[in-house]
Every structure is written in C-alpha cells, then in structure tokens.
Amino acid sequence: MSFGQSVAVTKIELLKYKRSSQVATMVQKILDDKRKVLLKNIEEMIDEAMRARGGIWEPLQDIYSSVNESYLVLGTHAVDSAAGSTPAVMEVDVSVRRIVDVKVPALKVTERDTGTAPYGFADTSASMDRATSQIKELLPRICKAAEYENSIFSLAKALEKTQKLLNALENVIIPQYEQRIKFIVSVLEEREREEFAKLKKVKAAMERRK
C-alpha cells in the first residue's frame, strides 16, 4: 500500500490498520531472529575461516619453493610438459547446504584411485615430487577456506538485505501504521464526543417541551 494516500477515518479502516500493524510486528520479530542467527553464523565462520587460512600460507610457500626449484633443475619445458600430461587425480565435488534460508556451498575433495603414479618419476625431480605431494595434502584445506569465505559473503548479503527490511519496518512502516491508528482513533473519539453532545442537546430540548 502507499503511505502517501489519505486516511479514510472509519472503523473498518481502523481494523485494517491494526491488523496490518500486528502482521508487520510479527514480521519484524521473525526478521530480527533471522538477523541474530545470521550474525552468529557469520561470526563462527569468520573464526573458522581465519583458522583455515592461517594454516595454508606456510605450506603454500613451501610448495612455491618446490615448484621454483623444479623449474631450475628440470627446465621450464620439462615441468610444463609433465604438468600438461599428468591426469587429474583430485576431484572437488560442490554441493549446496542451507543456513537459515541462505544457500551456501559445501566442497568435498576426493582423490582418484589411479593405482599408479600420475607421471614417471624418471622424468621429474625430488622437488616436483615433493610439490605434488604437498599440493595433494593442502588442497582440501584450501577448499575448506574457500568454502568458509564464500559462505561468509553469501550470509553477509542476506544479513544486509534483512537489516534493510528491518530498518524499513522499524523506522517507516510500523511508525506510520501507528500514526494512522492514532489519528483514526482520535478522530473517531472526537466524533463520538460531538455526537454525544448533540444527543444531550436534543434530549434537553425535548425535556423542555414537555
């Protein structure tokens, strides 16, 4: 409804505004509960994300050092050739779960059972083997950190939207309902007083004629 419309001062309109105000108050309570749950989950995920990220930087530096050493020992062509011909042995499955009514990703890393090494050890170096092993070990933790950060982003967007709706209800919609209810009640009471005064005058006039 548009709050720019004029108010019809009737008991039916008063009842409509009272019902609308009650519904708006109920929605406000639901949204406030949702806001609290979202905040709690965001805070928990921030802690988890910080722990997850804190545990990957040092291993990533080791992997970078190992890869760099491989390039120095084997040469760019040999490393790139081994990387290009190596079949994927790690898979990332993406599913969706819900927090409140927000969809967030869930990542699961699995290793394929190829039964053999992904490349020939004679064509590589110890540094490349070490980097491969480190990446396989670290990938699940990287994905978990990414899962938390993506979830935080999605929950933060939902929190922003929820807060905007709450602000609209608390600062605009509910106050305007209350103002209109107060105005209609005031006008109706004034009309009742006027009608009562008129009835008293009529009654007094009739008594004088007796």
SSE inventory with pairings:
Layout lengths: L10 H44 L2 H18 L1 H10 L4 E10 L2 E10 L14 H84 L1
- The CATH class assignment of the domain at 28-168 is Mainly Alpha
Sheet with most strands: strand arrangement: 1-2
Radius of gyration using CA atoms only:
35 Å
Tally of DSSP β-strands: 2
| Overall morphology | rod-shaped
Query: SSE string, helix = H, strand = E?
Result: HHHEEH
Give the integer mean of the pLDDT values.
82
Summarize the entry for a quick read:
The protein is mainly alpha-helical and 210 residues long. The chain has four helices and two strands; from the N terminus they run αααββα.
Overview of the molecule:
The chain is mainly α and 210 residues long. The protein has a domain of 141 residues: Helix Hairpins (Orthogonal Bundle). A two-stranded antiparallel ribbon has the order 1-2. The radius of gyration is 35 Å and the shape is rod-shaped. The two termini are 54 Å apart.
Highlighted features:
mainly alpha, Helix Hairpins, 4 helices, two-stranded antiparallel sheet, rod-shaped
